[in-house]
Structures are given as C-alpha cells and as structure tokens.
C-alpha cells in the first residue's frame, strides 16, 4: 500500500512515492504525473524518478479543503487515486512570495515580505557539520533569502570536492588544483566521466532537505539553476541535456513554497548559452512550474533584458564599483519591477576586488537601496585559515554587517503597507515615504549633517525619531509640528523617521 | 620725481605710480598704458586709476636683463620713460604655472606643480585678525592654491558685511538678514546705492596685498571674478559695466605671477549671463592678460563647454553625489586638458548637503582623482559658535583631511616627471604610472584586500612600499621581483608603490 500524506497545511508539500519500471533509463524513458483537483483549483504536475524504482510526485495546494489526486504515466500500468485534506496555514507559513504593488513583495496571505538576502553559493555541498553551522547562523540572522547553487562550484577557495554531484559518474582529479592554476580548468577538465542522462537522486534529495530546512526557518531558497563556475562540464551540456536538467529540477523542487528561480548566476559568463537558450529555459519554467514562483537571471556585467515578460523582478549585480545601490530608483523606473541588488560587493578582506568592502559600506548600500524602494543582498568573504568563506561555504559570520541588517529589517517591517516609495533626493539625503501615508524616512549615508530643518504644514503633529543605523539606536525626539529642527550628532549613517502622530 | 622699481627678480611685479587728471571720471574717462621692451619680449599693458589722482601700471617680466619702459596715455600730457634690471628668480620664485604635458601643470621654470587647492570664498574680506589667522594656517598647510572671490559673498553663514566693497556707494541694510530669509535677497536688494562706474581702490589694493602674501607662501590665487551669491547687485550689472569691471580687474591683478582666472563660481546660477557674455569676458582676458594665466569656469550643475579654446583646464564641481573623483579619467579623455575637481563636497558637519562629508571620504576622493591623473580641491565647513567656516571665512582648520592632504602632496612630489597617468582600474583598485617609467601607484580606496599579487616580468627588481594614506605611514617591503605577494592590513585607504630598484 503506497503511503501518502492525509492532511497537510495549505502551501506545504504533498508527496507520494510509487514503484515503477526500472528498465531502460527511468530518468528519461518513463514519465509520471499527478492531477490534483480541489474546489478552487485543478493542477497537473510532472513527477520524477527518484532512483531504486521509485517515482515521486509532489504538489503544493493553494487552497484549503479536500483534494482528489490521480497519479498515472508510462512509469507503471497502475494508477493511484485518493484524497487528502488541506488545512489552514499556521504560524510562520504565509505561503509563497510574489510581487506586490509593482515594486515590492508579499506572501500569498498578504503579509509584506522585505527581502534581506544573503549568498552562500554551495553551502549545501559542504560537510554536514558546516551545513549545520550554516543553518544555525541563518536561524539567528535577519536573512530571509539565500542564493545558492544546485550545481557544484569551481573557483578560487572552491577547489574542494562537493559532497555529491548531480549526475552519475566520476569527477576529474582536483588534487592538482591551486589558487594559481584554477582558472585554467574552467569548463570541462580532463578526467570527468558523467552520464548527463542519469541524475544522482541523493544530490537532489539532499538539496530538498535543505530547501525544507530553510522553509522552516522562513527563508526563501533563491535557487541558482545554472552558473559558469565549473570544472565538471555541467555548464557545457547540450540543449537537450539542459532541457532534461531543467525539467528534473522543476519537477523535484517547484512544490516547495519558498523556492525562487534564478536562471543563472552571471549568465553573461556562459558564452555557450545564447539568449535563445535562456528564453527556452524560461519557457520550461513557465510551463512546468505550476506555482508561478519568482523568476529572474543575474548578471556579471551587462544586464539581461529585464523587460522580458517571464522575469518577475530584477536580480542585479552592480556594474559600477562606486555607484551601486544609488541606481535603484532609475532601475525601478526603467523596468517597472522590484529591484533586488543580489550582489553589490561583499563584506570582507579577500584579495578579490568584489569581496573586500567594509561592513559599514555594505550596510550603507542596503539603506541606499531600501530608501529608493529596492532591496539588496549580503555576502561575506573574510580570509580564513580553513578557507571557509560564508559567500561560498556558509559556516559562521565574522563580519559587522549582519547585526545592522537585522536592525534595518526591523525598521522595514514597520513600514505601513507593502514597501517604501522613493520621494526625493538632495545632496546628502535620500528620502522615502509610503504612498498616501504620512510616513517619511530620511537617510544621510556617509554624510554628517549636524541638524536638519523640516516643515510639512502648520498643524499636523509628527512623531520624530533619530535613528543611528550603525550603532543601532533609535532616539525618540517627541512630537513636532510646523517648522522644526532635528539635531543630529554629526556622524555618518544617521537616519530620521517622521510619522504622523496617532493620538 | 616719480619713483619706480630699479631691480627685481624675473616673474616679480614691476610697478609705477604716475599722477594724472582727476576731473570727469578718471576710472572711465582716462587711460594709461605701458610698453615694456627687453631683449626677448615687448609687451604693452593697460594700467588703471588707483584713486587720489594716481594712475598705476604693473608689469611682470618674463626674462632676465634690462628692460625699457614707456608710460603714456590720456591720463596725462607727460610720459614716463626709463629702464630697470631683471635678475634671476630666486628661492621659491618659480614663475607662473602653466599646463604641461596636456594633463598636468608646471611652473615656468620647469618645476612640476601638483595642485592641492582649497576654497575660502571671501577670506580676504573678513576681519584683519581672521585674515592673519588664515595666512598662518595656509603657511602650515599643504595647500598651494586657494579659490577666492573678488566680489563679496551673500549666502547662509555670510550675512555679515565684508570689510570693503568693490565700488563707491552704500550697501543695503543687512541687519534683518537671517539664516531663514537670506535666500529672498539674492540679487539686488533694496537699499543698495552703487556707482558701477567708480571702483573703490581700497578694496582692490587690499586684494592685491593678499595676492602678494599668497605668492610669498607659494600659493596660487585662483581668482573667482564673478559669482551669483550676491545681495548688492554686483552680479546683475549690464554688459558695459561688466566689461569695465573685467578690464579693471585684469589691469590690476594680471601682473602677479600666482594669478589664475576663474571666470565664475557656478556660472550656471547666473541666468542673466549668457554664453555669449562669458565668451566676451574670456575674450577680454585673452586680449588684456598679457601673461596668459590659466583660465577656467566653474559649474553648479551642467559643465561649461571645456573644449572652448580659451579654457586651459577643467574646473569642475562634481555632479553626482556618489561618483565624483572617479570620473576624472573619463573627463581627461573627453576634454584633453588637466582636470581640477575644484569642488567635490567639503569636510564638515553643516546642514547643507554639499558640506558634510568626513575627512576620510574627502581624502579618498583626492586619491581617486590623483591616481586617475587629475587634481582635487578641499574645503571645510564645520559648525562653529562664531559662524566662522573655513570654506567662506578662512581662520583655522578643524578637520582631519589637511594633514592627509599634506601626506598625499608629499607622495605626488615624488612622481618622476610631470604627473601621473592612469593605467588601469580593477574592482577594488585604481593604478597610475608615469609614461615610460617603471613607477606604479596602486590605491584601494574604501576596499580592504588582505594581500595583492604582482607580476611584471621575471628579472626586474622593484622597491615595494605599503602606504597607509590615512594613518600616513610608509612601510618599506624591500626589493621584489618576478611573482610576488604584498600583504596588506585589511583596512581601508591603503596604497602600494612599486618602483624599479636603482642599484
């Protein structure tokens, strides 16, 4: 008797495992799908082969009530039918995140979602001990989104073997790799033997476990499906192999509510992939991901065309090294979509120029992005005797920015509505508001005015607070009205919040 | 017997005062000029009326030897003739500064000139005590250029009366001016009574004394001839009055070797002046300034067209508030002239957004400009109980940047040749060299790499130094060759200098 889930919360993941054919190549030659019918929706989704004769179908219900399911396909002569009950979502289960109000995000249940992302490219492919440490660190952090890769990463500081590979086969010998010679191996190094038609289910099962663990911590899994940092040849498969990979990934992962699709990290460093290829993969997602998860594609230098209809939000790596988050308002206007600066340089001290800004500068960029109505991403790259760097391996955080990002997150969650709207900018100040609400946030960045004068009108009373965004302090300055002056300590990274006083 | 100078150093200022007509309006109705003939040059220059029946001619000799002079004009029926001897220049007298090697500057005698400018708009129109303080401060600083105005300044923190005015007449009542209402008075406030055809010689004599004092401190006087910050109407004279003003200013000041002409501070905030007006004034300078002093014009927002032939160098106010000095290399290429960022925000804590960056940020901008082959300008605006702010009034310096600018100046003077050439830029580094010399300067700005690896070739030996540009320390790392690694402390504002080792 094949077991299946009888009751689950809305937006959780229903799953069934059915035995099926094991001859030929089950990954390619047999299909399984499930049709799910409730009062408010009917969805048909692809399942996948999970090795050892097991075929799996997953489904994320979007409504409460009773659902009927029917599992069928060439994988077996039998079919499976039944019902399950979907209960109300509880606790931290707010459903998947979608775009709200053009430039912002919200959970399916309406709760606003303010993205404070981090990057740990292959945290899940490190030792079990390190993974545990990473999850513990994330639990105590403000990060509610993490970018990471499905495929292993080959790069400086990433010469070690991942714990598993996505395909059946054997990797090239990595013992000769060093910090000096690793660049030569980009692509398909000699010695790799992979069967690109047979996946390694262990690798994907492990990633799913990580996705679930992140979900339980209320952290979005921004999955980087393709990337160029490769010595195994996974970035050089042909179109047919790529499509098979995409279908398998979507069938396995799309039923988890916290999944986002990042088609690539630095798509433009993959010259073998054309725009036509990316559009093809985007098409697969749009057809096969029945839950319409957020979709984007990240750049090294030139942006992908973010006006493409399948792109839900901009996932941007800064292009200029001096002016980064300060372009957010221009990009919002240009693309009319949420702007997420997923990469704006990392806090750290490594020798690579993209990973050695200070915590203060990173936090400043976050505030500049936020008050322009956008979002930013964190990463950390401090030299480490064991070569464990957060940006790639996770572990513990050594930097100063995470606490300040937690403080910023707190302020953001106090925004009335779905997000900040940039209002204006002066020489030394950026100001955000909320549409039709008397709520103003001013940020002074690296400038140090000693005071600021305000005037809104003669009668409205405002609660005024002076916020030290680095020392994480909020000072209540009482109720002000008419023309009023706010004294500031003449130090960097100050902000002022002004809200209509509610009697 | 009219006295005159018998002997003077080359590039000093020869002067004669001759009595003449006092009827009608001597400023306008009578002329005086001098013709100076030496073995290598013959120049005819305009003189000026100095009040009390005195007409003056000044001349700066550009060669050693005997000169003959002939003074004549409608100011008198008499003429004056004679000779004087010009001796070699001594000590700090290197002559006027001119453009050298397209992008840089040098004194007439060939000594390179690295501009480290500051701004004190109306220092010379403050109390005598404050002026003395300013000169003392300048003497102990690295500043070798100071921008200041001929006309008084009306602005926030500048509501006091200047010690003198350029014309005969009476000013409007300034006792009602406050920090809140001063903006209303921009232009010609009621109560002003000026005779725009009669200059006040005291005002100009005092400015000349200041120019001489600066010259003796080896400081260039970057004279701002027109500007918009005015409550007296000096910025609103008609074309004829402007031309008379220009002729008078050039006749009085051009014979001092340390004079530069800044046609305007923020020319674009003077809507009554058209491009045709500015071109007309530039033409007057080109015709009447026989010494071809450096000429430019400073902006608030849009640049003046720096390709105009009369413009010798770009005098730029940064346009973007985040990316300032980092545009220097683009501007050098665009304009093919020295780029002097005369205004890139001031160190301070006043409430105005152009005057409250930290000393660290200002010094960073200086280094970014310098390693891109350009020059920057300093200013300081710290709140002060007596409202004495360096940027306008001079006095003493309260900030942290001046010492670091002195340190930068020291490094610049060690450049072999006439200035730095930008070589390349990476994520976190800007590198400058000197053409055809194995001399390299790397600067890391706000980035903090822990080390850097270098390779030039297998055999050349290099002296390597690690420079802490904020803590002002130079650490000798010895001789390196081939592939070598330079450890860095992982802090901001570090630089590395690499020079071919001379055995």
Automatic annotation (TrEMBL), chains A, B:
* InterPro entries, per the entry: Apiosidase-like_cat_dom (IPR025277), DUF5060 (IPR032260), DUF5605 (IPR041239), GH (IPR017853), Ig-like_fold (IPR013783)
- Residues annotated as domain DUF5060: 8-71
**Taxonomy, superkingdom:** Bacteria
Q: Which Pfam families match?
A: Apiosidase, DUF5060, DUF5605
All residue ranges annotated as the DUF5605 domain in the record: 427-499
Residue stretches making up the Apiosidase-like catalytic domain: 101-382
What Gene3D superfamilies does the record point to? 2.60.40.3950, Glycosidases, Immunoglobulins
Q: What protein name is recorded for this chain?
A: Uncharacterized protein DUF4038
Q: Which organism is it from?
A: Lacrimispora xylanisolvens
